Amino acid sequence: MRITSILLALLFILPHQAKGLTGKEILEQIDRNYEVKSRISTATMVVKGRRGTRTITSKTWAEGLDKTFTHYLSPPREKDTKMLKLGDELWIWSPSADRTIKIAGHMLRQSLMGSDVSYEDFMEDPRLANSYHVILSGEEAIDGRSCYVLDLKAMEGKRVSYYRRKLWVDKERFLPIRETLYARSGKLLKKLSIKEVFKLENRWYPKRMVFKDVLIKGAGTEIIIDSVQFDVPIEDHIFSRASLRK
Questions:
Q1: Is residue 11 classed exposed, middle or buried when 0-12, 13-18 and 19+ CB atoms within 10 A define those classes?
Q2: What pLDDT score was predicted for residue 134?
Q3: What b/e readout covers 145-167, taking b as 16+ CB neighbours within 10 angstroms?
Q4: Which parts of the chain sit beneath pLDDT 50?
Q5: Residue 61, class by beta-carbon neighbours within 10 Å (0-12 exposed, 13-18 middle, 19+ buried)?
Q6: Among candidates 138, 212, 201, 155, which has minimal Cα distance to 179?
Q7: Where are the domains of the chain?
Q8: Which residues partner with 47 through β-bridges?
Q9: What letter would DSSP give residue 20?
């Protein structure tokens, strides 16, 4: 069995070598698993709220970690809504209102398209090693997968949505197949579970995951990656405010 990293420069790591990894090294492996030069993907988001189930589809273009453009394709209510992230700034254009809104301040805590995901979740730096101290607290089997258990605490002065996190990281794939997210007070806020994964270009990537805000009613939000391409060229104009109205 082999453990595959995401960076092309990194060779295969044998299981007996992985046993000596520190919590920080495991966290860095997770970060590398998600880092790509560019990505084009289509996704389905199934929101299972207290008033019923809604299905939303979208296409996303991303370059590095700071540029993301999303075009919502369905249902009719959300169709042609567009969202642009540039660094720490976020704009949304709504065809019904025909105006661009900057999402900032308290608005970032609001739900994204009525889902269990907030705008703040969308904007957070995915490189956990940059924002959290980490302790390797143990090992546990989750859904038949052997996992490292990591306890994370936010670094002083870092802007994060969750002060503490607990991750169960698949030892072979370096994906956190379960995660619990906490406030500074210790109150549980959200849960994340990766239910299905796939392998593409020597990297493991989530195929289907469930995000649950425990403070609201409903069965959570399921996100399904329908297709994805990595390290593909993307025209510069995609990541411009002008693209929101096109």
A1: exposed
A2: 97
A3: bebbbbbbebeeeeebbbbbbbb
A4: 1-18
A5: buried
A6: 212
A7: 21-245
A8: 54, 221
A9: T
- Cα–Cα distances (Å) from 12 to 5, 17, 62, 109, 203, in that order, read 7, 10, 27, 40, 12
Residue 173 corresponds to which amino acid?
R
Looking at residue 228, its amino acid is V
Residue 6 is predicted with a pLDDT of 30
Please say whether the beta carbons of 170 and 145 come within 8 A. yes
pTM metric for this prediction: 0.86
Q: Which CATH number fits domain 21-245: 3.40.190.10, 3.30.1490.20, 2.50.20.10, 3.40.50.970?
A: 2.50.20.10
Residue 187: count of CB within 10 angstroms of its CB: 11
Helix (H, G, I), strand (E, B) or coil at 164: strand
Neighbour-count burial for 107-139, b at 16+ CB within 10 Å, e otherwise = ebeebbbbbbbbbbbbbbbebbbebbebebeee
Q: CA separation (Å) from 116 to 95, 99, 167?
A: 23, 25, 19
Both tokens of 27, joined, read 């966290």
Q: Which two tokens stand for residue 175?
A: 């994906």
What's residue 19's pLDDT?
Answer: 56
Query: Position of tokens 């453990």?
Result: 3
Matching residue, tokens 């299972």? 48
Amino acid identity of residue 47, one-letter, is: V
- Inter-residue contact 59 to 68 (CB < 8 Å): no
Distance CA 44, CA 32 (A): 24
